[in-house]
Amino acid sequence: TGGVDAGAGTGGVDAPVDTAPGTDAADAAQDMAPATPDAFPDAPSSDVAPVQATIGAAGGKLVSGDGIVTLDIPAGALAADVTFTIAPATSAPAGAVGTVWEIGPTGTKFAQPVVLSLKYDPAVGTNVAVATVVGDHWQPMPTVIDGAGGAHAAIVHLSLWAVVRKTAGDCLNDVSCGISCCDDVVGTVQG
């Protein structure tokens, strides 16, 4: 899979994402929640082939080859063309529910939030969050759970991403809160 996709949701690049002006990050993530999941990982799927696509200022969508990861980039989030990649990570901290994904280019920052959607096994429950690595810990992000195995978060940078179980008192800020406000909680996330 991969390549150009006219909206079938099986991998590649879709038409630009239409994000209404003034939509906050949580509303953007809720709007992007899929109606039904296509597949759920039973275990880390490191055999998934990496996908890549070039997306520019008009926005677009990149979907992993197995349909587990969707990156929706709205118009205006980028100033120029960027070649994005989605691939299973080769190393990451423990605590992820399913596969850890390297979404790159690592370090890319967006002018406005983009929506990252990750599918996970719904048997895990809904006490989960989309998370990124800060230092050597998982940093949970504000996440919309659709109840059908989809976790959706508005993000502003690219790096390692996964679904993790939330623990009591999780600091659900963006990474600008820094590790100091979340260190005690994030370090205790268990898989």
In N-to-C order, the SSE pattern is EHEEEEEEEEEEEH
Uncertain segments are: 1-45, 173-191
Task: Name the beta content range.
Answer: 25-35%
**Structure class:** mainly beta
What value does the Rg take, in angstroms? 15 Å
Number of strands: 12
Largest sheet, strands/sense/barrel: 6 strands, antiparallel
Characterize the structure shown.
The protein has 191 residues and is mainly β. Helices cover 8% and strands 35% of the residues. It has two helices and twelve strands. The protein has helices at 25-31, 178-186, and strands at residues 12-14, 51-55, 60-63, 69-73, 82-88, 101-104, 109-119, 128-134, 137-140, 144-145, 150-157, 160-165. The strands form two sheets. It has a six-stranded antiparallel β-sheet. 42% of the residues are buried. Mean pLDDT is 74; it is low at 1-45 and 173-191.
List key phrases describing it.
six-stranded antiparallel sheet, single chain, 191 residues, disordered N terminus, disordered C terminus, mainly beta, 2 helices
Write a compact overview of the structure shown.
With 191 residues, this protein is mainly β. Helices cover 8% and strands 35% of the residues.
Question: What's the topology here?
Answer:
Blueprint: E1 12-14, H1 25-31, E2 51-55, E3 60-63, E4 69-73, E5 82-88, E6 101-104, E7 109-119, E8 128-134, E9 137-140, E10 144-145, E11 150-157, E12 160-165, H2 178-186
Antiparallel strand pairs: 1-3, 2-5, 3-4, 4-7, 5-6, 6-12, 7-11, 8-9, 8-12, 10-11
